[in-house]
C-alpha cells in the first residue's frame, strides 16, 4: 500500500559492491535474453538494410530499398487491414468471454477448490498441440460436420453452410478458442485481488449488480484487461499459421507475407516487414501501457 | 411511507451457517431510537454476525429484525435505510475521497453536481476538505476512518452499523476517533450500533452495552450497570475491573450471608441481587479492584470492612494514577487491588510482603 520510494539511497557501505550484486541478480535473465532475443533482433534489423542478389545472397551495406518496396506495396496495406480485422474481432470476443469467465470464477464460485478446478479446466485445450486443436475443428465446422448436420436435420438450412470452415469466421473462432485463456488468466488474477468487502460496501450503498460491475469490478480489473489485451494482440498480429490453416489459404496475414518472402529467398524484404511489424506492435503496446499504468496497478 | 425511526428490535434471532451450530442463538434485544449501542464479546461470539444481519448482508435462520416498527428480514440494505461502516473500512481504492463519499448518491442516480455538493458538505463535516481529491491509500488510518464514516452517513440512514471501527488504529488515535464517533452520532441523531472487543471502548461510548458469549446475550444495559453490577462471572471477568471469588455459603444471617473462604471468619456478603441462597450453595461474588484496600497485618481495618484476607504480594505494576497490586489471596482466581498512587507510595509494599486485603462489606456483589 505504501508508495515505494523511487530510488532509495544505497544503504551498503560501498556502492560498487552493491552494483556488483545488482548485476549478479540480473545476469541469468541477461544471459538468456541477449543471445536469444537481442541478438536475433539485431540480425534481422541489420538484414533489413542489406542488399540482395535475388537468390538468397546478402550484400552487407546500407540501403532502404527493402523498406521502400514494402511500404510502396499495396499488398502491405491490405495485409495490415486484414490482420487488424482479425486482431480486433479476436480481441473483442476474447475480452468478453474472458472477462465473464473470470468474473464467474471469482465472484460466483464460492468454493475456492471448485474455482481452481474450473480454472484448470480452462487450460485443458492446451494439453494438446495447436495443430491437433485446429484439425479438430474440421469434424465440427466442416461441410459434413456436426453443426451442419444438426442444422440440416433441424431443417434450418437446406444446403450445408460453407462459411463455417476455411473462412474468416473459422479463423476468428480458432483464435478465440486458442487465446481466451490469455485473457482469463490476467483478468482472473486482478479480479481475485479485489477485496470482497468492497463489493459488500457497494451493495450497502445501494449499487446494483451492473453498477458494481461498471464502477468497481471493471476499473479494478483494468491491469488484467490490459495485460490480456497485450497477449492477444501480439499473438494474433504475429501469427500466420492459424490464418493459413483455418482460412484454407483464402486469407493471409502480415506475417504470412514475409513467410512467403523467406520462401523465395527475399531475406531483406522479409526482415524489413518484420521490423515494421515490430514497430507497429511496440506502438500498440505502448498505447495500452499509456492508458493503463500496469506497474502502478500491480503494486497497488 | 418514509419512516425515520431507528429503533431496533431483535426477536428470537438465530443464525446458523452450517445448519448444525448456531452462531447467533436466540437473541432478543431492544435498542431505542438514537441510541449508541455497543456489542462486545470475544471473537467468534456472534456479534459481527448480528451486525451483518441488521445491515442486511446476512439473513437470520430464524427470528425477526424490526427497524422502526417494520420487519426488515429479506430487505436489501437500501430498503432498510441502514448503512454499514466496514472493518478496515473497505474504501474503493481507485476512487478519490470525494468519489468514495459520493458513491451511494451516484448509484442512486443523483446528478453529478448534486452529489458532489452533498459529498463536499459531508467532507467538511468530517474535516477532510483538503484531502478531497486524494486516493484512500494516500490517507492516514484516522483519515480513512473518517472517509468511511462519511461514506456511510451520506445517505442519511436511520441506523449506522460499525464493525470494529477503531481496531485498525493505534491507541492514541483510537481515543481521539472514539470521541469523534460519539460527536458524529449526536450530530446525526441516529442509532449507532458498534461492534468491538475492547471493554474501554464500549463503556466509554455506549448508552447500551450488550455483552455476548457464544451467540447469546449475557447482559445488556447501560455502561455503568454492566461494569459495576455484572450479572455473572463471565460478564464480571470480561468487563474487567472486578475480582471474582467463589465459595460455599457457610451461614445466612438476615441481610447478609457468609462465604467460606481462606479468611478465618469467612467473607460477609450483603444479600441483594441474589435473594435466595441457602447454606452449602456454591456462590460467586465480585469485588471491584478499586474497592480493595491493603492493610499491613496487625493494623486496624478501615471503617465498614469486616472481611480481611491475608495475602502475599505477587507483583506490582505502576499504572500512573493507580498502582496495580497482584495478590495470591484466593487459590484459583487472580486477585488484584488498584491502590491509588498517593496511598500506595505513602507506605509502599514490595513483592513478597504479607498484607491484609479488605473491602467495605457493602461493596461485595453476589453473582448469578
Structural commentary:
The complex is a heterodimer of chains A (300) and B (368). With 300 residues, chain A is mainly alpha-helical. Chain A contains 15 helices and two strands. In chain A, α8 runs antiparallel to α11 (222-237). Chain A is flat, with a radius of gyration of 24 Å. Chain B folds into two domains: 8-233, 3-Layer(aba) Sandwich (Rossmann fold); 241-366, RNA polymerase II/Efflux pump adaptor protein, barrel-sandwich hybrid domain (OB fold (Dihydrolipoamide Acetyltransferase, E2P)). Chain B is built from ten helices and 20 strands. Chain B has helices at residues 47-55, 77-80, 97-107, 112-125, 141-153, 171-188, 199-205, 223-228, 233-239, 341-346, and strands at residues 8-15, 24-31, 36-40, 62-67, 70-71, 82-85, 159-163, 191-196, 208-213, 216-221, 242-253, 256-260, 267-270, 282-288, 293-295, 305-318, 322-327, 335-340, 354-360, 365-366. In chain B, the strands form four sheets. A six-stranded mixed beta sheet of chain B has the order 6-7-8-3-9-10, with helices on both faces. A five-stranded antiparallel beta sheet of chain B has the order 13-12-11-14-20. The mean pLDDT of chain B is 89. The chains are: A mainly alpha (300), B alpha+beta (368).
Provide key terms for this protein:
heterodimer; A: 300 residues; mainly alpha; MetI-like fold; two-stranded antiparallel ribbon; 2 strands; 1% strand; disordered N terminus; B: 368 residues; alpha+beta; Rossmann fold; OB fold (Dihydrolipoamide Acetyltransferase, E2P); 2 domains; 5-stranded antiparallel beta sheet; 10 helices
Note the topology.
The complex is a heterodimer of chains A (300) and B (368).
Chain A: H1 15-48, E1 51-52, E2 58-59, H2 65-72, H3 74-108, H4 112-121, H5 130-135, H6 137-141, H7 146-154, H8 168-192, H9 196-204, H10 209-220, H11 222-237, H12 241-246, H13 254-263, H14 267-291, H15 294-299
Antiparallel strand pairs in A: 1-2
Helix pairs in contact in A: 1-14, 2-14, 3-8, 3-11, 8-11, 11-14, 13-14
Chain B: E1 8-15, E2 24-31, E3 36-40, H1 47-55, E4 62-67, E5 70-71, H2 77-80, E6 82-85, H3 97-107, H4 112-125, H5 141-153, E7 159-163, H6 171-188, E8 191-196, H7 199-205, E9 208-213, E10 216-221, H8 223-228, H9 233-239, E11 242-253, E12 256-260, E13 267-270, E14 282-288, E15 293-295, E16 305-318, E17 322-327, E18 335-340, H10 341-346, E19 354-360, E20 365-366
Parallel strand pairs in B: 3-8, 3-9, 6-7, 7-8
Antiparallel strand pairs in B: 1-2, 1-4, 4-5, 9-10, 11-12, 11-14, 12-13, 14-20, 15-19, 16-17, 16-19, 17-18
